[in-house]
């Protein structure tokens, strides 16, 4: 799961927002120095990732990628899952998606002082300023996001243009996500880490 989905699965608080985003910025962070609520959010983030990374539906989706890109299929799927969640929002939630996104952005900005890493603070501010979540409605924005990740990989790879695999297998991935996300939501609710 990527940032938007993590926040959908978080508690509606600033501390939970920070903790659930922190999972992608935690390298080098003193976990023991976090407040209990932020730490619980981080634990929630990690539980989401564990469930996602080991789920048979997600494994089947990864197999749909070309062999050259399969190593990075999980990264591409995480970003694409945000697209699917926003694109088909009414299947998962009755709230107005723009209001939800706006609330997430407010919590991200309100939580800046709780964010232990400078790159987390700058990235989350950029996410708000460029309406990162809103842009995920459009598959071209997803393609750009995936290619930005590919450009940061420091060794030779074939991850560029992974959107081709996603487009080619859209129905399979979409239908798998429709089944997977409610199962993930139930799993996180049952764990009740926050």
How do you describe this structure in short?
The protein is mainly alpha-helical and 194 residues long. It contains eleven helices and no strands.
Model description:
It is a single chain. This protein has 194 residues and is mainly α. It has one domain. The chain contains 11 helices and no strands. It has helices spanning 3-8, 14-22, 36-54, 56-63, 73-87, 97-110, 118-129, 132-135, 139-152, 163-168, 170-191. Helix 2 (14-22) crosses helix 3 (36-54), helix 2 packs across helix 6 and helix 5 runs antiparallel to helix 9 (139-152). The two termini are 18 Å apart. The relative contact order is 0.18.
Q: What is the residue-averaged pLDDT?
A: 93
Note the total helix count.
11
Work out the number of β strands. 0
What characterizes the major β-sheet?
none
Determine the structural class based on helices, strands and strand pairing.
mainly alpha
The fraction of residues in strands falls at under 5%
Integer tally of domains:
1
Portion of residues within helices: 55-70%
CA(first)-CA(last) distance: 18 Å
The low-confidence parts are none
H/E series, N to C?
Answer: HHHHHHHHHHH
- Per the principal axes of the C-alpha atoms, what is the gross shape? globular
- Cα-atom Rg, whole angstroms? 16 Å
């Amino acid at each position: 799961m990527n940032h938007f989905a993590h926040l959908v699965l978080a508690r509606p608080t600033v501390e939970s927002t920070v903790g659930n985003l922190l999972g992608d910025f935690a390298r080098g962070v003193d976990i023991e120095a976090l407040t209990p609520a932020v730490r619980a959010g981080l634990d929630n983030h990690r539980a989401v990732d564990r469930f996602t990374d080991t789920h048979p539906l997600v494994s089947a989706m990864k197999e749909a990628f070309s062999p050259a890109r399969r190593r990075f299929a999980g990264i591409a799927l995480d970003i694409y899952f945000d697209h699917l969640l926003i694109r088909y929002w009414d299947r998962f939630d009755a709230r107005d998606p723009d209001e939800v996104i706006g609330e997430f952005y407010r919590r991200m900005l309100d939580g800046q002082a709780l964010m232990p890493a400078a790159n987390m603070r700058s990235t989350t501010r950029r996410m708000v300023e460029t309406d990162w979540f809103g842009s995920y409605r459009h598959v071209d924005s997803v393609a750009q996001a995936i290619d930005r990740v590919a450009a940061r990989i420091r060794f030779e790879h074939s991850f560029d243009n992974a959107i081709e695999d996603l487009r080619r297998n859209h129905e399979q991935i979409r239908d798998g996500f429709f089944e997977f996300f409610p199962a993930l939501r139930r799993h996180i609710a049952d764990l009740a880490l926050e």
